[in-house]
Amino acid sequence: MSLAGNLKTVSFPDILQLLATGKKTGVLEVKTSTRQKEVAFKGGNIIYASSVNTSEDLLGNMLLRRGRITKSDLDRAIALHKQTGRQLGTTLIDMNLFQKEEIAECLKLQIEEIVYNLFSWQEGDFVFHEGSAPKNVPFLIELSTMNVIMEGTRRIDEWLEIQKVLPPDDVVVALAKSPKVAKEDITISLEEFRIMALINGERTLPDLINISPMGEFVTCRAIYRLIIGNLIEVVGRRQDSVEEREDEEEVMLSILFHLYNNCFYKIRRLVESVLGDNNGRFPDFVSQYRSGVFTFFPGVEPDSELCPSFDKFLSAVRTIPAETRFHKLVSGLEAMLSEQLEYVFQLLGVNLYRETVLQVKKEIAEPLAVRRELVKRYGIDDSFYKSVKRAEKVVKMVRG
Q1: How many whole angstroms separate alpha carbon 299 and alpha carbon 261?
Q2: pLDDT at 378 over 50
Q3: In which element (H, E) is residue 113 found?
Q4: How far apart (Å, rounded) are the C-alpha atoms in residues 285 and 280?
Q5: Tens of pLDDT, residues 243-299
Q6: Distances from the Cα of 364 to the Cαs of 69, 200, 259, 260, in angstroms?
């Protein structure tokens, strides 16, 4: 099948239609002077897509932008990927940073974003290389091309309406203080709920798109629906200002409080799922940490009444001299986390230890996504991963 031309004369949806109905296998190449994308097909269905000369759609950058991985871990993964020749997605799985299902879901989102982006291209040369296969792919994700055509076409129409409502890029949005809608009439989707959780009265539309885990279109659609539903509102243009030191410290302490409480709860819950609630070995072990500010990290369910309040934790922390406050708190939490992970290995073995580490690592994703700049500035992410690496070093030594 000879298929080549320019999007000025043949639209991208029409190209997809031809390939789907013909049940074609091969790689479609579409490029302009500055951009190039490739979409791979098998039996007429889309199995892969990539951006050849840009990093915006690369898996690693996508995970980094969404706070799913730290820069240091990504750099290690890339270095290992180059040394071994194994694909980045496979390398991330080998490093126990992600499960295969998580990488598959990220790849699916990546493919969809690349393909849907092509629906907006008005020009660009294209050529279909029949029989070709995508190179350097960790594993393939099969998408129905006909479903993609319907969704992509619908998105084009919807995008025009969305653009009419979205605020300018320099305008800050916030949750509406007095929504002009009756409570019984409020119905929000999961996508809208996720976006509302990211809106803090300080972020602009580009900020929300950057940290959202759902891709640009889905994020903008959710914001559009929240605006017309009177659930969020604009609060003025962003002004460059410096946060008060005390406010910044409080935010940082809040991140540490919730992050480590979630981690210790995940560890305790996994141990109990194996040994039972009445097994005393693990509770006896963690009782050593019940002193000073560390009594505020008991490993109980974060949303339960048993969990200490952040306000009391904040008051206790601020009794520590400001010069040593951060170091004392973080170093103590580092030790608690690494020692509890090491003890899980001793109690339950390496497989359940690996599962625990994976569960714990997931907890850093939200603070990285929501307050990436502050997390980086205070080195909270580096400190967190230092604890995990310290435990890993001990496990390796024991295992020989």
Answers
A1: 6
A2: yes
A3: helix 100-118
A4: 9
A5: 444 478 888 899 999 999 999 998 998 898 888 877 888 888 988 888 889 999 999
A6: 8, 19, 7, 9
- Stretch 158-166: mean pLDDT: 79
pLDDT above 90 (res 43): yes
- To the question of pTM greater than 0.70 for the whole model, the response is no
Q: Which residues contact 78 (CB under 8 A, 6 or more apart)?
A: 60, 88
Mean pLDDT of 38-59: 80
Domain 166-237 has CATH 1.10.3720: no
**Are 143 and 108 a contacting pair, CB within 8 Å?**
yes
Residues 115 and 130: their CA atoms lie apart, in Å, by 18
Hey, where are the domains in the chain? Answer: 4-66+98-145, 166-237, 245-399
Please tell me the number of Cα atoms within 13 Å of 273 on its side-chain side.
10
- The strand ranges marked E within the chain are 4-6, 26-31, 36-42, 45-51, 125-130, 171-175, 232-237
- Among the listed ranges 87-96, 147-156, 206-215, 369-378, which one has the minimum average pLDDT value? 369-378
